[in-house]
């Protein structure tokens, strides 16, 4: 008897979940259809409106990526011990904290080839450096410190 009640209760629960998930109104226009109908209405009214996507595309063209940098970017320096020199990054240990500086493989910073692991160096860079976040900027030069 109890098994029958549980079976009926389980079937009812499954049916209610199935109907709740499929209760989506299919007659509503999708975002694409509504934007097409809005553009056709504006063109039939003689109005020339640009779509929001056109505005986003124009904004994206004008945007400056952090990797591109700007002429007025603030230059900063950090002095520490260099280690883990690789083709695309190196690590500076300053005040017991490790900071990773990354760069494009084909654009090594000036002076990087003159230093080796364990040297005390001064790094000149733009952007921000953090011990937890990835380096977002450009390494301008690496010089051996006195």
Automatic annotation (TrEMBL):
Keywords: Signal. Residues 33-50 have a biased composition (Low complexity). Residues 24-78 are annotated as: Disordered. Residues 1-20 form the signal peptide. This is DUF1344 domain-containing protein.
């Amino acid at each position: 008897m109890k098994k029958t009640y549980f079976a009926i209760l389980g079937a009812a629960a499954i049916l209610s979940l199935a109907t709740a998930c499929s209760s989506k109104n299919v007659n509503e226009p999708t975002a694409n259809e509504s934007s097409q109908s809005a553009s056709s209405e504006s063109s039939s009214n003689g109005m020339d409106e640009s779509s929001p996507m056109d505005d986003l595309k124009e904004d994206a063209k004008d945007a400056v990526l952090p990797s591109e940098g700007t002429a007025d970017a603030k230059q900063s320096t950090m002095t520490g011990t260099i280690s883990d020199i690789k083709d695309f990054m190196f690590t500076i240990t300053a005040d017991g904290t490790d900071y990773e500086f990354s760069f494009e493989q084909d654009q090594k910073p000036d002076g990087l080839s003159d230093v080796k692991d364990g040297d005390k160096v001064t790094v000149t860079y733009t952007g921000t450096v953090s011990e937890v976040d990835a380096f977002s900027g450009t390494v301008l030069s690496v010089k051996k410190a006195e």
